[in-house]
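Proteins fold reproducibly. Take a sample protein:
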Amino acid sequence: MATRKATALEQDALKAAPGIYTPVFENDSVRVLEARMLPGEKVPGYYHPNYLIYVLKPSVIEISDETAEHLHPRAADVMWMEAGFHSCENVGPTVFEAILVEIK
């Protein structure tokens, strides 16, 4: 996936999708979010700094920047994601739940 810096008009995850992302913890080093995305639910373009995902409930997630990539995470998978602007959609048949740890 290509990465780029967000512009002032691009929103972070909490602003772009407050119904999907819930803040759990934040300090000067990290921000922890819980993500819960129903099948068919989509988040418009937003920005994440570098972050780690810990999958609680699997599904099929499509992450799009200039291209689209389908991820098939399983429960307890841990994935590292580079900073960048993207949109995402739950294209799978089940609810996707995960914990995201954004690095500041």
